[in-house]
Design brief:
Blueprint lengths: L1 H11 L10 E3 L2 E6 L2 E4 L6 E13 L2 E13 L6 H4 E8 L1 H18 L1
Antiparallel strand pairs: 1-2, 2-3, 3-4, 4-5, 5-6
Length: 111
């Protein structure tokens, strides 16, 4: 009878699976809003904002050509102008995202 209780209690415990609602890159959320992409967890002190400034046609598809990259503090007590820690422009979305990911990782390690 003791074994039956153990089995029953194991079955009744739901397994907690964390499902992400967002795409992820290197374990952090990547969210698109219009021509901007935000990379990082909004609960962290910093995130990266990628803004597509120009596009080029590749067949029937538009590809991001020039992309602005900004490392931004998420602290709302800081003025919007002072929140920008670093900024740059890169050719191509992957290059911009890779740079932003490196900046974010370093900044989060600094604190």
């Amino acid at each position: 009878m003791a074994e039956e209780k153990k089995t029953a209690s194991k079955k009744s415990e739901p397994k907690a699976e964390k499902k992400s609602e967002f795409f992820e890159y290197k374990g952090k959320p990547l969210v698109r809003s219009g021509k901007s992409l935000y990379y990082g967890d909004i609960n962290d002190p910093y995130v990266v904002c990628l803004t597509v400034k120009s596009e080029k046609e590749e067949g029937n598809t538009k590809i991001a050509d020039l992309v602005g990259v900004q490392l931004i503090a998420t602290d709302e007590t800081i003025s919007p102008k002072d929140r920008i820690i670093k900024k740059s422009e890169k050719n191509g979305l992957f290059t911009a995202l890779d740079l932003g990911a490196a900046w974010l990782e370093r900044q989060l390690k600094k604190g």
